[in-house]
Amino acid sequence: MKKFSWLLLFGAIAISGFSPSAQAQSSPNTDESDMVDLQTLTCRDLLKSEGDNRANLVIFMHAFINGKNNNTTIDAPALAEATDAIVDTCIDNPDSALLGVFEQNR
After folding, report:
1. How high is the pLDDT of residue 18?
2. Domain ranges, residue 73
3. HEC string of the chain?
4. What does the pLDDT read at residue 3?
5. What is the pLDDT of the chain when averaged over all its residues?
6. Is the residue at 51 inside a domain?
7. How many distinct structural domains can be found in the chain?
8. pTM of the prediction?
9. I need a labelling partner for 12 at 20 to 30 A (CA). Which of 60, 61, 73, 102 fits?
């Protein structure tokens, strides 16, 4: 059942990533505060995120790394272990670049 939940979650992310960009086009009030540069995210940003925001950030980062590595396989237990290692690293090094921590622990 856990595997199915992970697949649903990653499926929802994938679908939302491939949806038409009509929403972005119809929102002329988009400004820089609506954009996130993954290069500037730090471990502190992850640690200060709460609840669904933290979970969504972790899931997004895992999906980003999978895409960057052209990896189409989802190994839920391995991702859970990697997440634990990432959080531990972030606790010890809150000013570290989050993207770098994900790359090191994946």
Report:
1. 44
2. 39-106
3. CHHHHHHHHHHHHHHHHCCCCHHHHCCCCCCHHHCCCCCCCEHHHHHHCCHHHHHHHHHHHHHHHHHHCCCCCCCHHHHHHHHHHHHHHHHHCCCCEHHHHHHHHC
4. 54
5. 83
6. yes
7. 1
8. 0.70
9. 102
Does 22 reside within a domain?
no
- Say how far apart CA 15 and CA 53 lie, in whole Å: 19
Measured CA to CA, the distance from residue 57 to residue 22 in angstroms comes to 23
Q: Is 51 left (phi over 0), alpha (psi -120 to 50) or beta?
A: left
Domain CATH code at residue 81? 1.10.890.10
Question: Which tokens go with 66?
Answer: 């999978």
Give residue 93's pLDDT.
98
Is 13 inside any structural domain? no
Q: 101: how many CB neighbours lie within 10 A of its CB?
A: 22
Residue 3 lies in a domain: no
